[in-house]
Amino acid sequence: MKLSKFIFITLVLLSSFGCKKKEVSESDFEKEVLNSVFVEIVDSIYMDRRIILPPPKFNPKTNKADTIGNSKELKLFWHRQDSIKKDTARILIGVHDYVVNNKIRNEKFDLTPFKNNKKFDFQYTSKFPNELTWIIDDYKSGMPVGTIEISNIKFNKDKTSGIIEATASCGGGKCGRGFEITIENKSGEWHIIKVFQTWVS
User: Fold this and answer.
1) Is 101 exposed, middle or buried (0-12, 13-18, 19+ CB in 10 A)?
2) pTM
3) In the chain, what are the helix, strand and coil shares in percent, each to the nearest 5?
4) Rounded distance, CA 76 to CA 61, Å?
5) Percent of the chain whose pLDDT exceeds 70
6) For residues 172 and 133, what is the distance between their CA atoms, to the nearest angstrom?
7) Which of 76-90, 110-124, 137-151 holds the top average pLDDT?
8) 37: burial class by Cβ within 10 Å (0-12, 13-18, 19+)?
9) How confident is the model at residue 123 (pLDDT cuts 50, 70, 90)?
10) CA dihedral sign of residues 188, 192, 198, 201
11) DSSP notation for 59-103
């Protein structure tokens, strides 16, 4: 009887350990969710300074509004726009090193999971000169076409949805937009369900 009781208890303990799920800390859970929606966020809000400027309206010789006299400049402008749209090279995006965080911790945002992304080449903004010094119509210096900054996620009570605040800029202090992005877990996968623009400059 003692032996059978011992075997029974052992089996119960083994089964309880086997069924125990690996617990994920709150911090790791948030990182996983943020990583799963990061590229989708960037693709939804990024600003490309190469194509943000409007067509030239002024004749460079007279400095007056003229869409005929500056036909050469217009032709070059549209040719450049077409070239950018057809370019299959990865788009260089500057990402602010740290997540805007209202919590105590202040961890660097890890770009490693996205190093092989086919569309975007993500680099920390700290690798480049101060963003305010960027020249908006500089197309050849190898600088990022824009920057992205994101906040930590404000989850609902059940952690089935959350809100992320984000900003996108084309650099040079010339243009920027702020967003409130709602994400939701649908069938085990997190996706954006709403992008609301909160400010523009």
Assistant:
1) middle
2) 0.78
3) 35, 30, 40
4) 16
5) 79
6) 5
7) 110-124
8) buried
9) very high
10) positive
11) ETTTTEE-SSTTHHHHHHHHHHHHHHHH--SPEEEEE-SB-B-SS
